[in-house]
Records
---
Amino acid sequence: MTTVRASRFVSTVALSMCVAAMVGGCADGAGRDDAGEPRPVPRSAPAQDDLLKSAESALVQRCLTEREVALPAAGSRGSTEKAAAPRREFPYGIDDPAWAAEHGFGGAAETEQAQQQEQQTPQAGKRAAEQQQRLTDAMFGTGRRELSTRTATGLVVKANSDGCLAAAQRVLYGDQVRWFRTEVAVNNLGAAAHDRVTRDPAYRAALARWARCIAPVHKAEDPAELRSAWQRRARDLDPRQATDLQRRYAVAEARCVRSTDLADTGARLEKDHAADLRAEYADLIGEHRQMRDRGLRYAVRHGL
């Protein structure tokens, strides 16, 4: 059994989302029209997601202000974000050889960014770490983790209930314990579907074809093993050689994914497994939707 703290599994995304929204300017009244009247609850799912994020961020910001915790400066993240490779999702292996030839596995920019951060002076690095820890503690709480739930993959996720994020969720959704349980579970259904795909005989057959295809470049049972092999070899190479090797491996991965239909097989199977999971967790999904609806109504009513 694996136990993961929510601030690493679920809430790390919430931290970056909240910080980005608040640094960018998230003020009261964002949910009102030009005449000052509350806007109706949006109908599309993306717009509803944006409203809930905005409302949650506004409530978190109030809480952080009350606790006298400072947010990062507006310009502290821009330069590193511009250097990052374009975000692409390849859940079953890279299937775009042209993208792979340019970006490799997509991690070169992040590695360079980490190296730049390591070059900070010890004093600056210590201050930054202390500020980050203070923000993390205020956001997610400290001490014993009171909340716990098990996902569809069997992962146990735990979190504190005394942070600003928890406080914001209590206000928006009414019951933070229920919200934590349903939010973690629903958000993990995609991972559960992916997990079922990787154990599906049809996918395993496609993966075996991919392994035979990639063998002349490097013996690996799956794309993750190929990337691990690159990381091991890259330790003994200079940065240019490591980047060249990464791109060569990534292009080989993509060509084999294409020729064996690995990604297409995974995507097709994922639809089927996702439908099965939605049926299995229909009651929990319904409960989660009800709490979202409450949060949306609260956000609109209070102009968040």
---
Amino acid sequence: MVVTEVGSANAKYGTMSDSISKIRAEINQLRDAKRAEQCHRYFKTHKGGYGEGDKFLGVPVHELRKLSKKYRNIPVSEAAHLLRSDIHEERLLALFILVLIYKKADPVSKKEIYDIYLSNTEYINNWDLVDSSAIQIVGGYLLERDKQPIYKLASSADLWERRISVITTFHFIRHDEFEDTLRISEVLLHDEADLIHKAVGWMLREIGKRDIKVEEEFLKKNYKEMPRTMLRYAIEKFPQEKRKLYLEGKI
């Protein structure tokens, strides 16, 4: 958990409202035991897996997105309460709602959502939760601000905070700002987690879609020491012959 200047950001979000009860009832009606079992395998909730101990109800993502639009006008405090659920789909729905609220929020509310997000990273603890929210909320808030918070996340012992750090930079990439992605990629170059290798490679590939020279300058400097998965993701869109040269270390 990254502590923001609103250190007690969670204190006022502890009471469950009627809206939360209704949301949970609707989610429960959509549960699917077979799909839940598939989710437990897919998101590696077994002992020692990256999602160890997480609980799924088997609710399809498209149904959660429908619910997020239905409940997009609930108070931020209620979405924050839902985010601290032990049910994966409830946390994902909370993030979908917070993203929708953030898009139309005033500056004060955006700051509140950003602070809540970074004060609750312990609940944003799988790749789908990170990837569906960090770009819009953390990236959106920090675009024109000091980027130091993502460097703090990149140095975290927590896998998901490190993933937030690099995925956040997708928002900057979309605005043709690549420096922070490249710097974060260097920080994470020797990370041991496969999910970080994939995330860094993905962001480098996104840079290449916009400026191939920038990506290749980074790759030529670092590709021989990059994890194989990271490199494969980064060069996925390259011509076959060039991919082969990179993989064989002949660039």
